[in-house]
Amino acid sequence: MDSPESSPPASTSNASETAPVEDSPVFSYISNLSPLQPVKSSSVTQGFPGLNSPPLVFASPQLIPHKRAQFSRTSFDKLQVRLEDSKNSVTTDKGHGEQNIQLNTSIAASTEKSSDSNSSVDELIQSPSGSCEQVLEDIVNVDSSDPNFSFDSTIKKSERNDQLANAPTCSTETVENFRHELNSGITGELAVTHPFTCKETEDAQTELILINASASEKAMGQGDEVSVNCSTVGTELPANNAVVYRSEDNFMTELQNAKTGQAAPLDQSSHLLTGSKAFQNRGVRRRCLQFENAQHNIISNRLAQDTSDGEKPKTRFLETPLMPIDGKLYPQNTLNSSIKLPKPSGFGLHLNSILNTVQAGSAATINVKTAQWDCVSATTDGNTHETHACASDGSSLSLATNVVEPDNNSVTLNSNSNQSILGNKRNTEKGSGLEGTNNLSPKKKRMNTTESDDGYKRCNCKRSKCLKLYCDCFAAGIYCADDCSCQECFNRPDYEETVIETRQKIESRDPFAFAPRVVQHIIEQSPSVSRGEDRSNFTPASARHKKGCKCKKSMCLKKYCECYQANVGCSDGCRCEGCKNVFGQKGEYGMAKVFLAGEDSQETTDDLSAEKCEIDASRSHTYHIEFVNPNNLTPLTPAFQFPNHEKDGSAAWFPSGKHFQSPESGLTYASPYAMSSASHNISANNAVIPESSKESRHGNGNTVDELSAARSRSSLVWQGSPITPMAEFSGSKVPQEDVFEFGLSNTVQDDTPEILKDSPTPLNTVKANSPNRKRVSPPHGQPHEHTSSSSADLRIARKFILKAVPSFPPLTPCIDSKTLAVQPDSSPENRDDNK
DNA sequence: GAGTTTGAAACT
DNA sequence: CAGTTTCAAACTC
Ligand SMILES: [Zn+2]
Ligand SMILES: [Zn+2]
Ligand SMILES: [Zn+2]
Ligand SMILES: [Zn+2]
Ligand SMILES: [Zn+2]
Ligand SMILES: [Zn+2]
């Protein structure tokens, strides 16, 4: 009632208020128009300070889409790819056509380290020209829904869907085709946008990120790849390279074709995109599985098809709408080059947020949205080439995205480096335990009450109207579902404007509010593995929360602790008292964990914690360090920015795409939403579909197992380098458990330079095994971890994990794509070398 | 399912 | 930035 806010909270400005009533497009429009956003200009400011980096990490979507459905189905988006710089864009031509589409993107970013973590962000953002940093803007957007894309300077965006064609980028034809296809077959839901930004920073560590997306339907095949070249980027310009892809199934395909056609690896950097279709709903879990199986490519179609195909399930995310507004926002941002967008929100939003964008010109960003989602995985093998983009000059990126379902949001991106992102908020799931169990079973189901099918949790908010971060749904960037037991809920598509405004408001305070909270640093692993498995990479061990917990009574042994809930150990950023986090106590992280491969690895668990620190410290040098600087952690810096904006916003999503490296360490963030969203769908518009399903949101049960689920959910994995730890796992399989946990959340990998320094892979070994185990088995506590955790993790999906990978990639920072491409795999070598 | 505990989010 | 309040999930019973 009336309580204070009677109505929807007004978000930010109130003025605008968006009452629910206002859903109408008009409002949206207005909203968009309104300068509010600028709020933080930060976005701009921060974000683009000039340059590069993206300020926004998450960016919420500014625009509001009206409904996704419309979009998606109707027309998709198109994909555009442009490369500005030297070349132009690549277009796709034709193609092969396979059904699968994959995108790989690798990005190399340099990580910089700025001094402080915190600052780092700012720095990034601010740095205007980025002095050192260049920003490349590469944007990749894949939206199905959104028509608009914006690129920076160079790039233009197509404005609307229709217009899209115009764009220079990809061949219009292709796009159109996509549309058709999409329309027809696909629901169109997927949109993936990844914003990436590459920056070079001083040192330039660059990170690469690869994302692969495969379409489910199509098949596995992977086959197609698309590569785009970016040339270098100019330093300043952000825009230089922008790539936008829209993927949809069809879309993807075509792209592929095109890609192939053109394919080229172009110059310095090339991008590969692989898109797969997204699946909608359900699938999350399944996706995961599939994911694994396919590794990157494959995604199960079913999901997509099933759900997606025709119907849209409900999505939590954005179903709604996007607002018409779009244009405006976009244009501005886009056009100008950037962006200006007020809002940065970036991470997933419900809605789609739109994001804003940004871009600023400078920074390079790539956005990927995925609407429906699927999973993203990187693929590599085949493609391998991946590329890298580097920024240096140009930066190239490769993204591969698979979308998975929204459900969990899992998106996995693999970067060579391996970063993953976890979702924002909590995992959520309550039932984790169950799930774990369930995982395997296909059916399973469901879980607890809390969760819904899709995997998302359902909230029970009574006084927050689901417009505050207290609400898990809202925090995750998704709309409340029917299953939610919330009261006076405004987190619904009908109130999209309100939701968006509120988001923006929140973001204005904390740009990373919707960003993934967990970052992983992973170590690289063997290349081969990595690719395929990416997901596996998760390493709980390496992952940590950005903000850290402040537990006083739970000793970080219960889910009250966000770190624990996310299945990650506490880091220096945590202010917990009496930390006994099974995944790692505070000190450890900072220290660097070392796992020795052989030696210590096993120990990991408990021992590790206490001892680790010590050990680590000492060894760390020797062995490896995982992760991240403590500093990084916390702050994480996220770097994301999102550029986008758009209405659809989608774009943003991935904002992260950007992978940002953290300046400091080079972490990368993925946008949470992105990830999550991705899952949700948010991505682009966010559409999230969260659930996918139609059915229920959550879970569906299905299939897949936990792992998959987990993966999917969270997982966005970026493969940066080849690293993937998985190797050990090898295969597909990844330990379930392990995976799960991690998987749950999205992960982003970070590269950490530091790591590089040392060792190569501690994690691998250890992690592979240990991580999970540690947790799990353990001694301590683990309570349920295995299972539950996994499940939990899944939930976490929302969260993202970032992994930092030091990986070698970095080594190359940026570098060329080619090199990278090759190298990545070689990672091992690198390691050795590094070592 | 009600009630308690908990720590993040929000607010001051 | 710290202290307090609010909040909903996690947990307990
Ligand atoms: Zn709620
Ligand atoms: Zn809800
Ligand atoms: Zn609600
Ligand atoms: Zn804690
Ligand atoms: Zn903690
Ligand atoms: Zn702790």
Automatic annotation (TrEMBL):
Residue span, CRC domain: 455-584
Protein name: Protein tesmin/TSO1-like CXC 3 isoform X2
Cellular component aspect of the GO annotation: nucleus
Coiled coil feature spans: none
Residue span of region Disordered: 1-23, 109-128, 411-453, 750-792, 807-835
InterPro entries: CRC, Tesmin/TSO1-like_CXC, TSO1-like
Residues of the signal peptide: none
